[in-house]
Amino acid sequence: MKYFLIIVLTALSLQAADIVDLVGLLDRNDTKGFESHIQTLSDANSAREDNKKTILMYACWVGNFDAVRYLLSKGADVTAQDMGGVTALHLAIWKGYSPIGLYLIEHGASGTVMSQEGMTPLDIAILKENREVISAIDKKSPKLKSLLK
Fold it and tell me: Number of structural domains, the chain?
């Protein structure tokens, strides 16, 4: 039993280290190193245990478009939400990374997912006066047209 617990605790610490390592690579803009760590669908959807933020969310937060593209090519879930209901699209728009936001929308991210704070990516785009993102969300959600005019 003692050895089983050691193995489980070691595995958990390694899993946590993986996401920390990936975030570090993103912070250093080490695209090649980052890509070498992301090989499977599971890797592409790596998330922190404490807040459920995915590696895609971190890539959006730091504005690493190459990492975002790579993660989506490996099957990262653009609809994943952290513990507060925030998505990668929320973060990209908040940080002002319009090209990343537009790319996420093109790949299935919803502009109408509400976080626990009551904000959608569309709300953030309106707040930031980001007409390009507002228009892209509008095209994906035609029912919004009457509200946006």
Answer: 1
